[in-house]
Amino acid sequence: MEGEKMNKIALMEDDKTVKLSIPRGYYVFAEMSTMADFNVKMMLRDAQSQKVSFEGERQSKDALPPIRGFYQCDYDETELHIHIEEGIDLDLRVDSTDLYDQNEELAVRTVTAVGRDLADDKYNDFMLHLTIMRCSEL
């Protein structure tokens, strides 16, 4: 997956799990925030073993400081799992941008996931921003 641009997001059967392309060995800085009436729990985990590398949970309509985490990815398939109260219809948008070094190898990937319930047209209910970076020779 190294050097592969993540331009399509695969939603799984529950529509709350998204496969992400995070190369093994890269470092991940995660930042999560919410402004919602309902509780939002977001996890970054290994798709195979379900090992959780980042977890954030919050229920607040106030603009609170984000929940942050930092880890090195030590598995091949990462998924973002979002757990929200049942009965809430979601609109989830995910996008990424890749930056390459002088050798055309992936140096940094950013991923932004934003979501809203369908009660209004504001994308402020929850967000997750990832900065994925190569910090040394792999």
Automatic annotation (TrEMBL):
Domain of life, per the record?
Bacteria
UniProt name for this protein: Uncharacterized protein
The organism encoding this protein is: Ligilactobacillus murinus DSM 20452 = NBRC 14221
